[in-house]
Amino acid sequence: MQKHYTGLIERYRDRLPVSKATRIISLCEGNTPLIQLQNIPRMIGKDVEIYVKFEGLNPTGSFKDRGMTMAVTKAVESGSQAIICASTGNTSASAAAYAARAGIKAFVLIPEGKIALGKLAQTLMYNATIIQINGNFDQGMELVKEVANHAPVSIVNSINPFRLEGQKTAAFEIVDELGFAPDYHCLPVGNAGNISAYWKGYKEYATDRVCGNRPVMCGYQAAGAAPFVAGHKIDYPETVATAIRIGNPQSWDLAIEAQQESGGWFDKFADQQILAAQKMLSQFEGIFCEPASATSLAGALNDIGTGKIPEGSKIVCTLTGNGIKDPEIAMQQCAEAKPVTIEADLDAVKRAILDCL
Length: 357
Ligand SMILES: *Cc1c(COP(=O)(O)O)cnc(C)c1O
Known about the structure:
52% of the residues are buried. The chain is 43% helix and 14% strand. It folds into two domains: 8-61 and 163-333, Rossmann fold (3-Layer(aba) Sandwich), CATH 3.40.50; 64-160, Rossmann fold, CATH 3.40.50. Strands 1-2-10-7-8-9 form a six-stranded mixed beta sheet, with helices on both faces. Strands 5-4-3-6 form a four-stranded parallel beta sheet. The protein is an alpha/beta fold. Helix 9 (193-207) links the parallel strand 7 and strand 8 (216-222). The protein has 15 helices and ten strands. The protein binds pyridoxal-5'-phosphate.
């Protein structure tokens, strides 16, 4: 009988910084589906294979769980009783969940009014202490770095190197499943930890000859929050994709390295394009991701359209988080599709159906 899946640290133990004695804090994260798109490639009339790595199916609904299982495991191993992070929402939900699992305390700093409803609800339910600030993520991040020097708390943002160690396993899973690395890997870029972690994972596998190739890394940002495209920090980042509403990415150098070493690029897309990609995925493939996540597909479709990503390519887009986290945006996206209300009788229901066919 096969041993049941107990999380990414157990699966990739020999490639992660844990010992036999380490108590693993896990919620069985990772092992997310790699789904090949069927309808969208046909609709755009291009001969490409597009796969989406649906990270929204992690325990708290985002890829942050990959990093958090490692970061919290190591925090507990070092004797920490409390963790802290700044967050646009998903890091706080994930930190709160893993702290609950470990039996330690979580503090999260979030920008007031700028995190999606589902993420706030999760963080409350997991019983973290939420500190809302009148400021954005970047300001929260600076405060967290400061306060960690003055209070006994471990930072679990992606400046914590264990976060990237955990997150690199997503690249391993893709190669293990496909048998090769894709030609292009597209993902949304906010604080830039994830693009750095994927590149680390792909490089490690290529170096150890688990696969013979490495992908070109394509990092996509929201137009109002695109420091990598601008080439400098942005003071007042704005986008509907709150998970990537970041102007001062902490993993700047690592992300530039990933782009340069892989021969990749950064680009930016308007909120409207991001939302259109989110709706397209739901409508035509049955895959509901959050707005920030859809930036990867918006970028891929754009670059396939222009030929920058040529036909014949195999492309993986990371869908970083679950669409259910942001019900307000989803309802706005579907404002015209308001449900009809009718009498509770057979004729009325029949008419409602026939009217739609
Ligand atoms: C955190 C997050 C991102 C950005 O990832 P970085 O590692 O900060 O670049 C993108 N999408 C979602 C849904 C996220 O939660």
